[in-house]
From TrEMBL:
It comes from Nocardiopsis alborubida. Binds 1 [4Fe-4S] cluster per subunit. Following nitrosylation of the [4Fe-4S] cluster binds 1 [4Fe-8(NO)] cluster per subunit. It comes from the Bacteria. Keywords: 4Fe-4S, Cytoplasm, Disulfide bond, DNA-binding, Iron, Iron-sulfur, Metal-binding, Transcription, Transcription regulation. This is Transcriptional regulator WhiB.
Amino acid sequence: MRPRPSWGWQDAAACRGEDLVLFFGPDGERQPEREIRERKAKEICAACPVRTDCLDYAISRPEKYGTWGGLNEDERASERRRRMRRANAA
Ligand code: SF4
């Protein structure tokens, strides 16, 4: 069983009060709009004081969708693989 996640870091999240669509996107979103939306979300993440906590959380759970810790789904999958390789090499 996985340890229960700590959500305390969310109290300081820069995205509090922001529209969730900015981080998760609407249904049927096309690539050009997605890129613009993700860029805006990542700008908020870049100034977020709990970015590392957010990214660590999203990497450690099966969070398939959305922008977390400044990374989109594909970027998180790459980061997850990178961390696994690093852990296996240690
Ligand atoms: S890193 Fe981004 S998604 Fe995560 S809490 Fe901060 S603003 Fe929200």
